[in-house]
Amino acid sequence: MKNIFYGAVLALLLITAPVSAYNSYDLDTLLSSGSCPYGDLSGAELSNLDLTGANLTGSNLTGARLVKTKLDGAVLDKAVLTKTVLTNAQLDNASFKTAQLNYTNLSGSSLKTADFTQANAFRAKIANCDLQFAVFYLANLQEATLDSSNCLEADFTQANLAYAWLYNTNLHGAVLNNANLFNAKMNNANLSDADLTGATLSQALLQNANLNNATLDKALLNETDFKGASLNFTDFGTAFKNEAIFE
User: How far apart are CA 116 and CA 119, in angstroms?
Assistant: First the structure.
């Protein structure tokens, strides 16, 4: 019985113990030089630091905290940022190409012209962010939260936004060509002048959204809910509107 008890305790410790901890040499390298490509910074406390232009390519930042950290122009391509906290951070012109951002919290951050090309951001929190002119080409944003973010003229070409939350999001002039917005929640979103050519919007919620001058040619609008939406000069072209709801 004693062996069973100690075995259970050991198993519990293994489950609850941190999966990884940062490498102290890598942390010192970052703090002294401002860069640490392919370093292990998992779980590190990096809040309120000035890491402008840092090269963190391929680095492991799993569970790290970078609250209010300055990372303008930083390179985080191929970085692992799973469950990383980057709230209220400065990330203008930062690059996250092919980065892993699953469950990452970027809420309240400035991400103007940031590049998320082919990034994986499943269930990431990107609410109340400044994403003007940001690029999400081929990015996975499934079930991500972008509520109340400013995505003015952002590029979501072929991005996966299925089941994403975009309440009150500003997508004026955004490019969403062939984007997957299946069952996306976009009530009160501003999609005026947006390009949704070929986008999948089946079962999406667009109640009270602004779609003035938007282009939805070839879009899939099966059971899409447009109740109360503004549709002045909206171009539906050859959109497939089977059972779409307009009233």
Answer: 5
How many whole angstroms separate alpha carbon 118 and alpha carbon 183?
Answer: 21
Could you tell me which residues come within 8 angstroms of residue 8 by beta carbon, excluding any fewer than 6 positions away? Answer: none
Structure token pair of residue 173: 């002039």
In order along its 247 residues, the chain shows pLDDT tens digits of 444 444 444 444 344 444 458 999 999 999 999 999 999 999 999 999 999 999 999 999 999 999 999 999 999 999 999 999 999 999 999 999 999 999 999 999 999 999 999 999 999 999 999 999 999 999 999 999 999 999 999 999 999 999 999 999 999 999 999 999 999 999 999 999 999 999 999 999 999 999 999 999 999 999 999 999 999 999 999 999 999 999 8
For residue 235, the SS3 value is strand
- For 49-54, the CB contacts below 8 A with 24+ separation are 52/90, 54/30
